[in-house]
From TrEMBL:
Domain Ca3427-like PBP: 92-179
Stored Gene3D superfamilies: Periplasmic binding protein-like II (3.40.190.10)
Name of the molecule in the record: ABC-type nitrate/sulfonate/bicarbonate transport system, substrate-binding protein
The keyword Signal belongs to this UniProt entry's keyword annotation: yes
Coiled-coil stretches noted in the UniProt entry, renumbered to this chain: none
One protein family per Pfam: PBP2_Ca3427_like
Organism: Maribacter orientalis
Primary subcellular site in the record, as a coarse category: periplasm
Family as reported in the entry's similarity comment: Belongs to the bacterial solute-binding protein SsuA/TauA family.
Stretch forming the signal peptide: none
Keywords, sorted A to Z: Signal
PANTHER family linked to this entry: ALIPHATIC SULFONATES-BINDING PROTEIN-RELATED (PTHR30024), TAURINE-BINDING PERIPLASMIC PROTEIN (PTHR30024:SF47)
Source organism superkingdom: Bacteria
Length: 281
């Protein structure tokens, strides 16, 4: 058995991986796929990839592209989620903020610099016509840190995946002010250069297995109820999420990757674009 380390967020997007592991699909091909949840998100995952503490990751597209331009020795193996991520924009339920316009020149809570919550704050600001150089941030590590930061007014707003945060809205902890979808496919399967170079056939096996699971995922009987129970979501929220979410079994298109780099460069989030051939496996 070959042990392979993979990391991802503890969110409903990644259930196909857990089902494949639990059903022994990887073991059948001699692969011990060891999954670790990373609640801190993409910024933390970029660090773990850079430090060779994992082989693979399911990671936000904008975060890994930025990290790659900064020297992280990784490559995109394929798209995992082809649809945009719906980022919810939240404030503390007891705050005075009632509209997105009121958040101009306030402080955003972010899990880490280079994380989705950090990078998408720039995308959101650009859409609102704000001066991105005036954005202010407070590091909160994870979702629990954001709850504490907003409730004590250390931060004013927090952007996180809409459906993951919805229970906090329903329970009166957060107030939801709006959404900001990513302008590109949201999650990628990536690997470190060293692992990909040394394990080409193994990576193909892993791709084949997960693609079998994702192509039929929505057709699994009562998958909506399974997701709702497992991730503590309302059934109707999961059903809405399933309607807008598409899994992918192909590589990220080159023109999309060029657009992502151009957008990040426009926002001064990266200094330079990198040749496409160096990023795609």
């Amino acid at each position: 058995m070959k042990t392979v380390k993979i990391i991802g967020v503890p969110e409903h997007f990644n259930l196909p991986w857990h089902l494949a592991i639990e059903e022994g699909a990887f073991e059948e091909r001699g692969i011990d796929l060891s999954w670790t949840d990373i609640p801190e998100g993409t910024g933390k995952m970029c660090e773990l990839l850079k430090n060779q503490e994992t082989d693979l990751a399911i990671i936000l597209t904008e975060g890994i592209v930025k990290s790659f331009t900064e020297g992280n020795k990784v490559k995109i193996i394929q798209e995992y989620i082809a649809s945009p991520l719906l980022w919810g924009i939240h404030v503390d339920a007891n705050s005075t903020y009632r509209s997105l316009e009121e958040l101009k020149n306030t402080t955003a809570a972010i899990s880490r610099f280079g994380s989705g919550s950090h990078l998408m704050a720039y995308v959101q600001a650009k859409q609102m016509g704000w001066e991105t150089e005036k954005l202010k941030f407070n590091l909160v590590n994870n979702l629990n840190g954001a709850v504490e930061s907003l409730s004590t007014a250390k931060s004013d707003y927090f952007m996180w995946e809409r459906f993951t945060t919805k229970p906090l809205v329903d329970s009166g902890i957060f107030r939801h002010l709006g959404n900001c979808p990513t302008p590109w496919p949201c999650f990628m399967l990536v690997g470190t250069d060293e692992f990909l170079t040394e394990n080409k056939s193994l990576v193909k096996h892993i791709q084949e297995i997960i693609n079998i699971y994702t192509v039929e995922f929505k057709q699994i009987p009562r998958i909506d109820a399974t997701l709702a129970n497992r991730y503590h979501q309302k059934l109707e929220d999961i059903q809405e999420w399933l309607q807008i979410t598409e899994w992918s079994q192909k590589q990220l298109p080159e023109d999309t990757l060029m657009k992502i780099q151009e957008t990040l460069k426009e926002l001064d989030l990266i200094d330079k674009s990198v040749p496409i051939s160096k990023i795609l496996n």
